[in-house]
Amino acid sequence: MDKIVFRKPKLLNDTPMHYCPGCTHGIVHRLIAEALEELGDTDNVIGIAPVGCAVFAYNYFTCDMFQAAHGRAPSVATGVKRANPNSTVFVYQGDGDLASIGMAEIVHAATRGENITVIFINNGIYGMTGGQMAPTTLPGQKTTTSQSGRNPLEHGNPIKICEMLSTLTGPAYIARTSVHDVKAVRATREAIKKGFKMQREKKGFSLIEILSTCPTNFHMSPVAALEYAKTAGCEAYPLGVYKDVEQSNEVKGK
Amino acid sequence: MKKLLFNESLCKGCGLCVSACPKKILKLGNKINAMGYAVAECTDEDSCISCAFCATMCPDCVIEVHKEV
């Protein structure tokens, strides 16, 4: 007897992804598809693509997709969800999109408690435009616009989105996960699944921040970039559940 | 019966599967695909335990994993 242990989820099509070798966008795309399939919810899904490397995410998902203006994906998702309350709506944003130009949109969508799920990819760098410093760049991290490393006195400190949004009343579920190894990838899938479950149960806004990598602009091999995310990334951005309305005791990080 | 099926046309040779494999039986072979990447291949399929760690870390859904039961 032969059993299939792993195959490509049906929510992804066979188009070759345009991402660089070792880019973790591909892993997260697959996790979203797997989470929705495991919940048995693939016919009525609408995704909102951001501006950034994932701008072409609509080429890879077989569900309905929409591409929003830079940073405005949560606002577009608000309209989509209110017009189609029975659809599962997810927003896919990077750190340049969500934490910089889209900061107002995400904070207000969160505080309104919009019933959407936001997948926030945090790799600490602007990938598509050539590796400039992002709001989430780690102190000391070298980018094309902070060539001696980010200096908090000069460039300011990184923004911690999960910590910030978890202080609001609106969000139902805020968690930070990573994709640096198999265990972390599986934990990320469970977190994404929980976010979608919260949305289906109409509990409110959910955001999953996923620490990821950009091997091209880190100037590292894909394996070394994941090691960097595991060590420096997880140290600066502690993993954990920051808000969960289903649990009375909120766990703040690990 | 093959345990690992590689969709080689999608592989970008990033090597994340190679580093994830607990049995260390994957390597980036000498075969080059149409995109110009050296694709991943399995050197010893008999040792494969079908854990799917390689497929879990693959960003491009190259690997399909089967298990004999």
Mind explaining what this structure looks like?
The complex is a heterodimer of chains A (254) and B (69). Chain A has one domain (25-244): 3-Layer(aba) Sandwich (Rossmann fold). In chain A, α3 (95-101) crosses α4. Chain A has 254 residues and is an alpha/beta fold. Chain A has a seven-stranded mixed beta sheet, with helices on both faces. In chain A, strands 6-7 form a two-stranded antiparallel sheet. Chain A is built from nine helices and ten strands. The termini of chain A are far apart. With 69 residues, chain B is α+β, with helices and mostly antiparallel strands. Chain B has a single domain, classed as 2-Layer Sandwich (Alpha-Beta Plaits), CATH 3.30.70. Chain B is 14% helix and 30% strand. Chain B has helices spanning 16-20, 53-57, and strands at 4-6, 26-32, 38-42, 63-68. In chain B, the strands form two sheets. In chain B, strands 1-4 form a two-stranded antiparallel sheet. A two-stranded antiparallel sheet of chain B has the order 2-3. In chain B, β2 (26-32) and β3 (38-42) form a beta hairpin. The longest helix of chain B has 5 residues, at 16-20. Chain B is globular. β1 (2-6) of chain A pairs antiparallel with β4 of chain B, so a sheet runs across the interface.
Residue ranges of chain B: pLDDT <50 for 5 or more in a row? none
Shape of chain B: globular
Question: What sequence of helices (H) and strands (E) makes up the elements of chain A?
Answer: EHEEHEHHEEEHHEHEHHE
Number of discrete helical segments of chain A: 9
Q: Could you give me the name of the CATH homologous superfamily of chain A?
A: Thiamin diphosphate (ThDP)-binding fold, Pyr/PP domains
**What is the H-and-E element order of chain B?**
EHEEHE
Q: Count all strands of chain B and give the number.
A: 4
Placed side by side, the strands forming the largest sheet of chain B appear as 1-4
In terms of quaternary structure, what is this? heterodimer
**Cα Rg of chain A:** 17 Å
Chain pair forming the biggest interface: A-B, 32 and 29 residues
Low-confidence stretches of chain A are none
Proper CATH architecture of chain A:
3-Layer(aba) Sandwich
Report the portion of residues of chain B in β strands.
Answer: 25-35%
